[in-house]
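This follows on from our talk about sequence and fold. Go ahead and set the record down below:
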Amino acid sequence: MRATLWLLALFGIAVAGALFAGNNQGTVTVFWPPYRVDVSLNLVVLLLVAAFVFVHAALRALAALFDLPRQALRWRTQQKERSMHAALLDALSHMLAGRFIRARKSAEAVLQQEDALEVAGQKSANAGQLRAIAHLLAAESAHALQDRAGREEHLKLALEQAAAREAQETREGALVRAARWSLDDREPDAAMQWLKDLPVGAARRTLSLRTRLKASRQAGQTREAMETARLLAKHHAFSPVAARSIVRGLAIDLLNGAYDVAQLQRAFASLEASERTIPEVAIHASQRLLALRGDPEQARDWLLPVWEAQGALGEALQVKLACALEEALDSLDGTWLARIESAQKSNPRDATLQYLAGMACMKRQLWGKAQQLLTQAALGLQDPGLHRNAWRALAELAEQREDGQAAALAWKRAAGE
């Protein structure tokens, strides 16, 4: 379309020129004593156009001639910058390939070439960011080579070069890398200090939160780690299974950090509702409370959500739940006894429920029912601990009714013979 328009324009110019020149009878007379020169007006116009074109071409040629030194300088600068960027790419490639000595040399070559450009007064617009990245690559290589002094020197220079506003992202990356290096050196306090220097927005990014989580776990700051893990879970930084596993482990660590009943109660209350219903957490909290001579009724209350969802538990968790409830059977009330009996009757072939119901009946001094349930459970239990406890309880019941032969047989089976 554009070519068609240009063609039409040229035709229009040609027609206008033909109309003007064809009927133009004017002349131009030039007096140069003693001469007189008569020239047609058309020729004068052509000569003026030709003179303009010639002068314009001559000026352009002179401008190009005088611009040659600047063009040569720019070409040399471009060549040096290309060489510098190629060295930067080499440093990154060598570092990714694990060739850290070569990566460090390439990064230092970038810095040397940038220094040469600056001395020559040819400093590039993004020189600060380029130097900061080169220093970071050199520091990363030095860290891999266990050269801590070199790493710290390059890190300091990188932070200085990245102080400008346009290199803010580079500075944030340097701070995060410094925190990761401190974690590798098993210095979580130093890592936390590096992370505190990050702006608020950068501190809430997934990479920063992951680093903070590792640092707080290394430092034993379980509450800080819990808050960070919750944020990461909300940001979907982990898969649901991994997030649940991390939160579960941190919650158990938080409970283990309590050394009296009041501390344990506060720690358990600080957990979110969804965290308190995690079977492993609730079971561990109950066992920890009983170990600290806490209230068995409260321990049973903590286990109630897990008990109500026991149908979704695996066999191993059902055994742990039974053990935790067995420890909390002292002062067992009628409500819990009814719950256990109802669950056992709903699933009469479950040996774990038979064992738990038998132990509950034994605590309530219902000797006959306890013996019946424990005898059935002892024949079906797969867990060695529960199997041993069932035969031990049967031995105690036999001794109570003065049946020496049955007691000896039960003690023998409890011993695994």
